[in-house]
Amino acid sequence: MSNQDLSEVTVTVNGTKIEAQPGEMLIAAADRAGIHIPRFCYHERMSSVGMCRMCLVDVDTGRGPMLQPSCMVPVAEGMVVDTESDDTKRAQEGILEFLLVNHPLDCPVCDKGGECPLQDQTIAYGPGESRFVEEKRHFEKPIPISDLVHLDRERCILCDRCTRFADEIAGDPLIQFTERGNSTQVLTFPDEPFSSYFSGNTVQICPVGALTAAPYRFKARPWDLEETESTCTTCSLGCRISVQSSRNELVRYLGVDVESVNHGWLCDKGRFNFESINSDDRLTTPLVRDPDNQRQLLGTDWGSALAAAAEAIGQVGPQGVGIIGGSRLTNEDAYAWSKMARSVIGTDNIDAQLDDGLPAEIVFGLPPATIADACEADTVLIVGPDLKEELAILHLRLRGAATKGRTKVVQIGPTVTGSESYAQHSIRCQAGEAAKTLTELLGSGDPLAQQLRDGSVVTILGRASMAESADPAISVAAVIRAELPHATFLPALRRGNVRGALDMGLAAGFLPGRVRIDNPSKALLQKWGEIPTEQGLGTTEMLQAAVAGKIDTLVLLGADPLCDFPDRKLAAEAIQKAKTVIAIDNFVTASAAQADIVFPATAYGEQSGTTTNIEGRVSRVTQKITPPGSTRDDWMIATELAWRLGGDLGLTSKEEIWREIEQVAPSHSGITFERVTSDEAHEGILVQQSSIDLTLPVPQDTPIADGYGLRLISGRKLWDGATATAHSPSLQHLAEPPTLKVHPNDLQRLGIPSGSEVRVISTRATENLTAVADSNVQRGTAVLPFNQPGGGANRFIDATAMINDIRIETL
Amino acid sequence: MKFFTEENSSLAEEIIGRYPKPRSAMIPLLHLAQEQEGWVTDEAMAEIAELVGTTSAEVLGTCSFYEMFKRHPVGKYVINICTTMSCALMGAGDLMEHAELRLGVKSGSTTADGMFTLEGAECQAACTEAPCLQVNYRHQYRVTTNQFDALIEELSSSDHEVPEHGVLSQIRQHIPENRFVGVVPPEDVTAAPVWLNDNGSDQ
User: Fold this and answer.
1) CA A216/CA A402 separation, integer angstroms
2) How confident is the model at residue A790 (pLDDT cuts 50, 70, 90)?
3) Is A186 on the interface with B (CB under 8 A)?
4) Is B130's Cβ below 8 Å from some Cβ in A?
5) Does the beta-carbon distance from B54 to A190 stay under 8 Å?
6) In this structure, are A311 and A426 located in the same domain?
7) Which of A92, A316, B149, B159 has the smallest CB count inside 10 Å?
8) How many CB atoms lie within 10 A of CB A435?
9) Could you list the residue range(s) of the whole structural domain that residue A682 is in?
């Protein structure tokens, strides 16, 4: 035994000595040293299985060279490896000849042709000819195994990548090897499709053309594609993606492997909703309300629309304007609007969140954690939405860490969630009472309390239900800050660049860089001039003010309060009462359809800039295609409006905006434009920790439910009526119709058979819905998804209540 | 709609209880399902998946790996005629042809009355007794065409001891819980098994 450091072993590969980690597989060590060993089944993010035998290499551990699969052989000190020996080459030729025995070689009509590992490696390592003259096996091709994925079993080389992914990574083992020997094939159970939220990943990792995605099939050849690396802004997690286009049309997104966020995986919603960008329903020209027929919007030119908007804003005082939304925007666009609101209009009535997340000061004031922190923490405490539905890739990361035993997941919430399968404990509490349950837990002698006190804890904090206010979540934060001071937080916020929008000051009371409005920096005042000093209104307050006639002009910055704000009645009244509603959006959403002036904005893939994920990680969004019609970037609209209001934002390009952000936002200081556009931004750049004073209120008791009511719980589903999903032809039919789920005993008590229509009564509305018995629902509660097409829960919710109850009656 | 009968449901629970992980009971439950229906239906696989906490696709993957789990209806008696070397030399081909004529179906099919399924099979490990066949996996040795006819007659009457296809054993064993061998879940194993330590040579 040598005296060498035990943390590394030295292996000789092709005559070169390379360093490797003990336990690491030979193929991974070779990859890091830049020595490529051909492979089909090996994937660095999944366990090795040694299925395909393509990575056979000559390994000599002192007993002479021997062919061994390098994905299954851990490195050992003194190992001598030859990846180019005659034996290795003969093995590679043999394996490829075998793999091609049943492969149809229909490359000219195969989507994978041109980027196919089997094609490429056959050219590089194959024998050039085959001795096989018999009949190949035949299958019906292709068969849909889900709404999004098609399977061609003839092309499959049985590498176990898709089936392994489904089982190991996604936790949805709905595709399997069936039969045996020459009949082996990948299949689903009859009539039980591969309906995983992550099915698109199998298409990306398939080393042949066996799995193809319906939205991309026959759309383009790989050599015609142009691509650029960007960041997905579908949810607030910020997965890195490769945006690919052909003839100025987006045709495909692929996951890019970054250690910090998505490990190369994407959810199907993020992967396939590019279809909405290409949609014919896109808004391409400004619209104004027809003076002759108030019920319709008419196309107009930018000049008149901008003039009308400027007039509507200029007519009312600064307090008469409210700006709602902004999480669709890039950081630069959000900054321009933040500056425009404060320095030109002079209002602080601005809020990027639709009262469905956490107050900005909570987001800024709690000690932050990253996704990696969560995956390495002793305990991850989830008190918030169902991550599988709302932040799908975070769910995947936590699932991976928990199943590998790196962390323990504990969740406290009122419903069954997708995290149940890998959680150490799933503690069911009454809706809105997680803080109480947590206090009781920490006060008990339970070993879990000790685990939370002794080990590192990352809390994923958000609103478990849209039918509750932010108070229950804030109470949880207060309990954790008091009892577990070492715990850090990852906010589970809803929608795209919401964190970036908050950072840029699209939150009442906050300026860019997480600075309170009464404490602006000199640098900011120098650029911004005079700004309001009083904190303005948040979304709910703005809508209430509009109803009360105090706000006359509402600006909807990519926001659709009628669908996304928890309280539809309040939103509808506010939009109706406000004298002028200005909407800036990609589509004529439900709210935009009620607006007086609508501006068409550029969409994802049509604009460059930066986005910030829930960790506070800044990464690049890049333009790939030309925007349709006369759409404009949001910052340009802000600049134009400012100009017409007699102001000048002094911003002429996104680069210039970022340089100004870097100067005026203390948290972004040092994150220069050069850094943001460098290779460093591939993993994203974490914004500095903010240090605002935060006083958390004393936890409040949740109002007690009366004996007749059911406590309403409403979370979002991955497939719902979201604008991008609804405008993607492949995705729009995936959303289930809304059903009210109630415990069987509660239904029985009311004498209602499962599956029948019931009358649902809340303080806001009385409407009919289908009620279904579900024993996973707690007694005394009713679960209704927030935004399913055909009826959302927002009709029943009162946004000013801490918690909402409903009653159900037979018709 | 439940697949397993009430009696088999409780038996299934008992079988699952024998293993540290429910998933391990998948194959015994597939046997139970085949015993109940004579073959493994899709409904059975879906219910087994629910019982052992996995997906139907995983149960299908396991079930389809084994030829002796039938995923389509078979006759009351499955007759496997060995067609491998020794039996082939001793006239298995003729026997198969005779069987096809006698039963009126091709190898691989089931008679219209649902009584017999005829199959060719690989070696049944009775080469000294060639040609041999199995009825529901019970051997018949040195079978002549006349003996085959007699066998069919016997099976068609009620005077025989061959149970219907799927029945593993006519005597059901029940192991009381206190007589379990005390299986330990793999993740809880901390030391090498006793026999390995005693031996002392396995290091």
Assistant:
1) 33
2) confident
3) no
4) no
5) no
6) no
7) B159
8) 25
9) 302-357+498-686
Are A31 and A88 part of one and the same domain? yes
Contact between residue A275 and residue A729 where contact means Cβ atoms under 8 Å apart: yes
CATH class in words for B6-71? mainly alpha
Say yes or no for a CB contact (<8 Å) between A173 and B46.
no
Q: Is A176 on the interface with B (CB under 8 A)?
A: yes
Residues A347 and A404 in one domain: no
For chain B, domain boundaries: 6-71, 77-156
A-chain residues near B43 (CB < 8 A):
none
Indicate yes or no: CB of B57 within 8 angstroms of CB of A177: no
Whether the per-residue pLDDT at A443 is higher than 80: the answer is yes
Evaluate whether residue A504 is within a structural domain. Answer: yes
Rounded to an integer, what distance in angstroms lies between the CA atom of residue A571 and that of residue A581? 12
pLDDT tens column, A368-392: 999 999 999 999 999 999 999 999 9
A365 lies in the same domain as A439: yes
Give tens-digit pLDDT for A600-656.
Answer: 999 999 999 999 999 999 999 999 999 999 999 999 999 999 999 999 999 999 999
SS3 call for A514:
coil
Q: Flag whether residue B86 sits within 8 Å of chain A, measured between CB atoms.
A: no
Question: Do A727 and A581 share a structural domain?
Answer: no
Number of domains in chain A: 4
Q: DSSP string of B142-164?
A: S--HHHHHHHHHHHHSS-S-PPP
Q: Express each pLDDT in A177-195 by its tens digit.
A: 999 999 999 999 999 999 9
| Nearest by CB: B64 against A173, A178, A192 | A178
Q: Which fold has domain B77-156?
A: Glutaredoxin (3.40.30)
Give the 3-state DSSP-derived string for A717-763, with helices as H, strands as E and coil as C: CCCCCCHHHHCCCCCHHHCCCCEEEECHHHHHHCCCCCCEEEEEECC
Q: Tell me whether B202 touches chain A (CB under 8 Å).
A: no
Confidence (pLDDT) at A10: 95
Phi, psi of A742 (to 5 degrees): -135, 150
Which among A172, A180, A189 is the nearest to B60, CB-wise? A189
Asked if the C-beta of B55 comes within 8 angstroms of chain A's C-beta atoms, the answer is yes
Residue A698 in any domain: the answer is no
The pLDDT tens digits for B68-127 are: 999 999 999 999 999 999 999 999 999 999 999 999 999 999 999 999 999 999 999 999
Structure tokens, A288: 């104004």
Note whether A727 and A770 are same-domain residues: yes
Cβ atoms of residues B100 and B118 within 8 Å: yes
Among B45, B59, B61, the residue with its CB nearest the CB of A177 is B61
Among the candidates A99, A118, A140, a domain finishes at A99
Q: What is the pTM of this model?
A: 0.94
Q: Is residue A795 over pLDDT 50?
A: yes
The answer on A651 and A557 residing in a single domain is yes
Between CA B24 and CA A144 the distance in angstroms is 31
Helix, coil or strand: residue A214: coil
CATH of the domain at A745: 2.40.40.20
Looking at A178-330, list the stretches that DSSP marks H as alpha helix, in order from N- to C-terminal side: 200-205, 268-272, 274-277, 302-315
Closest among A198, A270, A229, A209 to A45, alpha carbons compared: A198
> What are A685's strand-pairing partners?
A618
Task: Decide if A175 and B57 are in contact by the 8 Å CB cutoff.
Answer: yes
Quick check: B149 contacting A, CB < 8 Å?
no
Q: Which residue has the tokens 């406290």?
A: A412
Q: Tell me the ipTM for this assembly.
A: 0.89
Sign of CA dihedral B167, B168, B174, B178: negative
On the question of a cis peptide bond just before residue A142, with omega within 30 degrees of 0, the verdict is yes
Best B26, B64, B72 residue to mutate vs chain A (most A CBs within 10 Å): B64
Averaged confidence pLDDT in chain A: 95
Confidence of residue A1 (pLDDT cuts 50, 70, 90): very low
